[in-house]
Amino acid sequence: MKSKSNFELITFNITAGDNEYAIGLNQTLYIKYVEDIQSATKRMEIQITDSETGICSLLRGMEQVYLEIVDDDENLIGGYYIIYDIQDRVTTSTTSKATLMLCTPDFINNAAIKLSRRFGEGEGKRIDEIVVNDILGSILETPVLIAPENVEPTFNKYSFVSPFWCPFTIISWLASKSIPTSGSGASASAGYAFFENKFGYNFKSYDKFATDDVVKTIIVGHEPAELESSDEKDILSVDSVRVSSSVDVLKGLNIGSYSSNVMTVDLFDMNYENIKFDINKYYNNVPLLNKGKKPKYFEKFKKDTSSTRIMSKIVDTALFTEGTHTAGLTKQLSQASLREKLFYNKFVDVEYIGKFDLTVGQVVELETFKGRSRELDEENSGKYVIARLERTFYSGDDMMGTALTLVTDSPGA
After folding, report:
1. What are the helix (H) ranges across 120-261?
2. 203-241 as b/e: b if 16+ CB within 10 A
3. Largest CA distance in the chain
4. How many C-beta atoms lie closer than 10 Å to residue 401's C-beta?
5. Could you read off the pLDDT tens digit of each residue along the chain, which spans 413 residues?
6. How far does Cα 359 stand from its chain's mean position?
7. CB of 47 within 8 A of CB of 28?
8. What is the reported pTM?
9. Strand (E) positions, 336-381?
10. Are 10 and 364 within 8 A, CB to CB?
11. Three-class secondary structure assignment of 262-318
12. CA neighbours closer than 13 Å in the CB half-sphere of residue 373
């Protein structure tokens, strides 16, 4: 008996010229929907056949596409997209097929804009206000939702001139210099993530994920007890998970993730500062997703002579708001890239067929076990952030599967 499909294609329209063409599921061979925490916008790939409409021969690029795909609980994915590339066109005597590469209208607008102007005139402006009001609002005029709860205020102000950068390039550059208001001080880390998920745009610090609520528990080989409802308990049962990467030590040595030395010159007062980084001190202060024990090999980097990377940096503290954090500003900015690398410390891949409720940027709890005894694997269990999400449909399967890439900055449940 054929299982019921877990989704419904509500709308799939392509506007070509002055006409709008409705594409049915029987004309759709393949769909891939992608969210990525390291990408500013969502993307899609769709392969269609045009035996009924003949639309493939009309497509030239830059056509508008609108889709709505829902699951049984009315969780929606889709929206407005633009065709930016058409690949793998195949034509026979009676039909044609092609793969449509889709991006959001904001992504197209971003690529067409190069900015040379000052932001934060005078004493500077809070970075989150520059991102939301000046760039996304005034310049891109985005129709995408920017909910206040998805934007974390920054402690520092900034004033700068953009050297003909695209809007998203500016936001990425600013993200590495943003310090959260809630963590200013000794434990603060500069570094924000900017991404789009099904709730709209997000601009939040890597530290903030450590305090976010868990939205779902993913359990490997979960067997529901009698009368137990997995939906009520927010449990997702999967057959297996794959730890695709776990602590690339050689890469960490090369970029100075464990022990480094940053020589900093402040243009404001020409003050020279030598900042030594020790993962042991930093790891104990930075907000982490899990409370597991610090890796033992960190102890080998306690010696002052063991710096694996020496860097130089020029900063101008006159561009920042004076306040309680100013004394440690150069240190926080110097460690911004290291905070990002720590955030992507371990990667775990999960695949399942189910609802469309999860989205990139949410925190989940992962439970894995050791052997037949099902003893909790504390090294790989714990809190993870959804860093990448792919939903894929093949016409031969009639089901849409989900692939998650989870990341965490710390071991232990």
Report:
1. 127-129, 167-175, 249-255
2. bbbbbbbbeeeeebbbbbebeeeeeeeeeeeebbebeeb
3. 76
4. 15
5. 456 788 999 999 999 988 999 999 989 999 999 999 999 999 999 999 986 667 888 899 999 999 999 998 899 999 999 999 999 988 887 788 999 999 999 999 999 999 999 998 887 899 999 999 999 999 999 999 999 999 999 988 888 899 999 999 999 999 988 888 875 455 557 889 999 999 999 999 999 999 999 999 999 987 766 545 545 568 999 999 999 887 777 777 777 777 788 788 888 788 888 777 778 777 877 888 998 788 888 887 776 666 777 777 777 766 554 444 444 555 555 566 677 888 888 999 999 999 999 999 999 999 999 877 788 888 899 999 999 999 999 888 888 999 999 999 988 75
6. 10
7. yes
8. 0.89
9. 346-353, 363-367, 369-370, 375-376
10. no
11. EEEEECCCCEEEEEEEEHHHHHHHCCCCCCCCCCHHHHHHCCHHHCCEEEEEEECHH
12. 4
Q: Alpha-carbon distance 130 to 125, whole Å?
A: 7
Tokens of 161: 């001139």
Residue count (the chain): 413
